[in-house]
Automatic annotation (TrEMBL):
<feature type="domain" description="Major facilitator superfamily (MFS) profile">
    <location>
        <begin position="79"/>
        <end position="459"/>
    </location>
</feature>
<feature type="transmembrane region" description="Helical">
    <location>
        <begin position="345"/>
        <end position="364"/>
    </location>
</feature>
<dbReference type="InterPro" id="IPR020846">
    <property type="entry name" value="MFS_dom"/>
</dbReference>
<keyword id="KW-0812">Transmembrane</keyword>
<feature type="transmembrane region" description="Helical">
    <location>
        <begin position="110"/>
        <end position="132"/>
    </location>
</feature>
<feature type="transmembrane region" description="Helical">
    <location>
        <begin position="371"/>
        <end position="392"/>
    </location>
</feature>
<feature type="transmembrane region" description="Helical">
    <location>
        <begin position="203"/>
        <end position="228"/>
    </location>
</feature>
<feature type="transmembrane region" description="Helical">
    <location>
        <begin position="144"/>
        <end position="164"/>
    </location>
</feature>
<keyword id="KW-0813">Transport</keyword>
<feature type="transmembrane region" description="Helical">
    <location>
        <begin position="422"/>
        <end position="452"/>
    </location>
</feature>
<feature type="transmembrane region" description="Helical">
    <location>
        <begin position="301"/>
        <end position="325"/>
    </location>
</feature>
<dbReference type="Pfam" id="PF07690">
    <property type="entry name" value="MFS_1"/>
</dbReference>
<dbReference type="InterPro" id="IPR011701">
    <property type="entry name" value="MFS"/>
</dbReference>
<dbReference type="GO" id="GO:0022857">
    <property type="term" value="F:transmembrane transporter activity"/>
</dbReference>
<feature type="transmembrane region" description="Helical">
    <location>
        <begin position="170"/>
        <end position="191"/>
    </location>
</feature>
<protein>
    <submittedName>
        <fullName>Putative MFS family arabinose efflux permease</fullName>
    </submittedName>
</protein>
<dbReference type="InterPro" id="IPR050171">
    <property type="entry name" value="MFS_Transporters"/>
</dbReference>
Length: 469
């Protein structure tokens, strides 16, 4: 639907509301399917503004004709091949190599200290690549950027396969991390520009769920391949196979994105100006994203540590963590339904609170039943957060041209995911796992408070009643 930002006095509509308000007749200067200057019935779909900003507000106005006439119903399957298929393939390949990177490095003579560093290079690559990937996706477009990321990933994986020393392996893994950052941002921007707002959270929740599914399936694929070949490096060829399949699928899929053409892209703000312009949002909501990302990542680290500290059998530990992961994955689509129906806050705040409570209660773990209860609680909380960081980023991003903002936004979430395990490990080493859990829980409650404070300010409460970008 064509949308137009118009200026309106504050007396017409109260600021910061998202109620549907029927206007009389509005003079449009640009709206899809409406002649320039035509006077047509209009519908005010959202109002954004601040009473302190000169007493004026930005009204997002939609053409009522385009809302009610000739509009084809949207279905998620229309973007399945273009976004969901490549995501599952790429994530499965990456999931296949992640457990094997330290083992390959050990075979090449890396010490214990270097093993962790080399394994972390894929996350380091993602962090370094987040910001410049926004500019790249902004310039090339989402589909082209995903194709380029697949090619760069293949190059990095070939470097991993043919590496003969740990440093060459680490550099190649870093290159794969850079490609992952570009691919992740491109698919995020693709959904942002392709899917109507009322379906956005469900689409991004499915996207997040598929990424988790790929990480779950990947290790099983690599184990099957290693049962045939004793060479651990063969897992890099597995990822190459999935990357090639991703590339072919992208080449065979039409560009469904609503991205701008090359001429329009040149008129948008650059990376630094985008970050400066939206520094308030990135600081406040970005802190929320970092805290949520940190709690989600620390959950993966702290559960095995708690099981070891409690002396639980390894078989029971693995089974319970697997069940909790299944609960997490099963809630992926439900998370999107909650966000699209009741608003982003109804998924974000309970999820953050649940993760905080689960971390605080880690000290009660003493046997298998208590460990299972806490693990499933954390799985439930994490499942209801599926896609929330991507959805908030898509809601907050400027339109048109969201890619550069999304690059900065993804950096905040990825930074939290990188910092969370480090914080939990440091606190565990200093004061024990129970204190570490309480410390992360306090950060979680802080994050929930920030979400309650800032989400209503920046994100509409009921997406179904706001304009479709």
């Amino acid at each position: 639907m064509g949308a137009l930002i118009v200026r309106c006095g504050m007396g017409a509509v109260k600021a910061a509301t998202a109620r549907r308000v029927r206007s009389g007749v509005t003079n449009f200067t640009s709206c899809e399917g409406v002649s320039r200057g035509a006077r047509v019935p209009a519908l005010v779909l959202a109002c954004k503004g601040d009473r302190r900003a000169g007493g004026r507000a930005n009204l997002v106005v939609g053409c009522q004709r385009s809302v009610t006439e000739g509009k084809q119903p949207f279905e998620l399957k229309t973007v399945a091949l273009a976004a969901f298929g490549p995501t599952l393939l790429f994530a499965t390949g990456e999931g296949a190599i992640l457990p094997m990177i330290p083992l390959v490095a050990a075979d090449q003579g890396a010490g214990l200290g270097a093993l962790g560093l080399i394994a972390a290079m894929i996350m380091v690559g993602e962090l370094v690549g987040d910001l410049p990937s926004g500019a790249l996706v902004h310039r090339l477009g989402e589909r082209t950027a995903m194709i380029l990321a697949s090619l760069v990933s293949i190059a990095g994986l070939l470097g991993c396969y043919f590496s003969t020393n740990p440093w060459a392996l680490g550099a190649s893994v870093f290159l794969v991390g850079l490609a992952t950052a570009v691919f992740a941002l491109a698919r995020h921007a693709f959904i942002t520009t392709s899917v109507p707002l009322r379906f956005r959270a469900r689409a991004l929740s499915v996207l997040g769920g598929l990424f988790r599914a790929g990480y779950f399936i990947g290790p099983f694929v690599s184990s099957l391949v290693l049962a045939i070949s004793p060479d651990k490096r063969v897992v890099f060829l597995v990822h190459i196979g999935f990357a090639v399949a991703t590339l072919l699928l992208l080449l065979c899929t039409g560009d469904l994105s609503g991205a701008d053409d090359a001429g329009d892209r040149q008129t948008h703000d650059g990376l630094l100006s985008t970050m400066t312009r939206h520094r308030g949002v990135l600081l406040r909501m970005g802190t929320c994203a970092a805290l949520l990302g940190g709690l989600r990542a620390s959950r993966n680290v702290v559960l095995p540590v708690v099981a070891v500290a409690a002396g639980l059998p390894p078989s029971a530990t693995a089974l319970i963590i697997g069940i909790a992961g299944g609960v997490d994955f099963a809630l992926s689509y439900s998370s999107g339904q909650i966000m699209d129906r009741w608003g982003r806050l109804w998924a974000a705040a309970p999820s953050m609170t649940g993760l905080a409570i689960g971390h605080v209660l880690l000290f009660v773990v003493s046997d298998v039943p208590t460990f299972a209860a806490i693990a499933i609680l954390l799985g439930l909380a994490n499942g209801t957060s599926s896609g929330i960081i991507m959805t908030l980023g898509a809601d907050l991003a400027p339109h048109p041209g969201p890619a550069q903002f999304l690059g900065a936004w993804r950096f905040t979430g990825d930074f939290g995911q990188a910092a969370g395990p480090l914080i939990i490990s440091g606190l565990t080493a200093v004061a024990g796992v129970a204190v570490a859990g309480v410390g992360m829980g306090v950060l979680g409650f802080l994050g929930a408070g920030l979400l309650l404070r800032y989400t209503p300010r920046y994100v509409p409460k009921r997406p179904a009643l706001t304009a479709e970008r």
